[in-house]
Amino acid sequence: MKDILTSPFVREMCDTTANMYRLGWDERNGGNISYLLDENEVAEYLDLNNVIRTIPTGFDAPELIGKIFIVTGTGKYFKNVEKDPENNLGIIRIAQDGTTAELLWGYSDGGKFTSELPAHLMSHRARLKVDPENRVVMHSHPTNTLAMNYVHELDEKKITHTLWEMCTECIVVFPDGVGVLPWMLCGTNEIGEATAEKMKEFRLVIWGMHGIYGAGKTMDETFGLIETVEKAAQIYMLTCNMPRVNTIKDSEMQQLAEYFGVDYRKDFLNL
């Protein structure tokens, strides 16, 4: 059996968490990632019959029974994942009761998955119904995106429109826009349910005064979605107190979207 530390999914988690920490998106133990894995690929590295222990998830996910995820651990610092993946990451399988996680690898200090796991599972469930290839849910606290929450109206149409105006690529990268939730208590099923409801139409959901959730087919795609929003938010924060001399017009954003053949939120433009 192959060494799991050499597996592409462990390496992707290590590389991504390191980049997120380096960019200042995930201070201390802020942020979390869950990644839906292919069972056959995991079987090359682990004995899937060897369950180390079981952990209640706090959420009933019958649609995800048998699904295997690699998930960042609760209380774990992203800066430490790369040097000690077995302690900071875990591979879990949703058990037949739908409410229990079977630990197949990781959390070697006796820990468990992120406290946001129910929110992740709800988002995975919602996104898989929209796109069966969705595999990644990523939560982080990008600095400029968070700063923008305090000075910009938290309205989905308005905040999406502002972000689209900041970079030519934005409407092409996230043509479905950005969902927005008001401040809610984190770590609860309530915020998970609200996020999953938004995930039915958005791949990106801002948690007011907290951070952002992103979903995608791959780690790169999901990281890139958040990265593009954060770049746009940075430009907004650098310019919001200055007179606006130039902007990307709505007609130009429409031209971009149609040229690149993306299905964009036409109701988010003022045409």
Description:
- This protein has helices spanning 8-22, 39-42, 85-88, 117-130, 143-151, 156-166, 170-173, 189-199, 219-239, 250-259, and strands at residues 32-37, 53-56, 68-72, 89-94, 100-106, 136-140, 179-181, 204-207, 211-216.
- By secondary structure, it is α+β, with helices and mostly antiparallel strands.
- The protein has a 9-stranded mixed sheet with strand order 2-5-4-3-1-6-9-8-7, with helices on both faces.
- Helix 5 (143-151) crosses helix 9 and helix 6 (156-166) packs across helix 9.
Please give a handful of descriptors for the protein shown.
9-stranded mixed beta sheet, 10 helices, alpha+beta, 271 residues, single chain, 38% helix, 17% strand
Short overview:
By secondary structure, the chain is of the alpha+beta class. It has helices at 8-22, 39-42, 85-88, 117-130, 143-151, 156-166, 170-173, 189-199, 219-239, 250-259, and strands at residues 32-37, 53-56, 68-72, 89-94, 100-106, 136-140, 179-181, 204-207, 211-216.
Topology:
Elements: H1 8-22, E1 32-37, H2 39-42, E2 53-56, E3 68-72, H3 85-88, E4 89-94, E5 100-106, H4 117-130, E6 136-140, H5 143-151, H6 156-166, H7 170-173, E7 179-181, H8 189-199, E8 204-207, E9 211-216, H9 219-239, H10 250-259
Parallel strand pairs: 7-8
Antiparallel strand pairs: 1-3, 1-6, 2-5, 3-4, 4-5, 6-9, 8-9
Helix pairs in contact: 4-8, 5-9, 6-9
Q: Report the mean per-residue pLDDT as an integer.
A: 96
Q: What's the main sheet like?
A: 9 strands, mixed
Order of helices and strands: HEHEEHEEHEHHHEHEEHH
Unreliable stretches (pLDDT < 50, length at least 5) are none
Strand content: 15-25%
What is the count of DSSP helices, taking H or I runs of 4+ residues? 10
Order of strands across the biggest sheet? 2-5-4-3-1-6-9-8-7
Backbone structural class: alpha+beta
Gyration radius, in Å: 19 Å
Count of β-strands: 9
Distance between the termini: 58 Å
Given the C-alpha coordinates, what overall shape results? elongated
Helix content: 25-40%
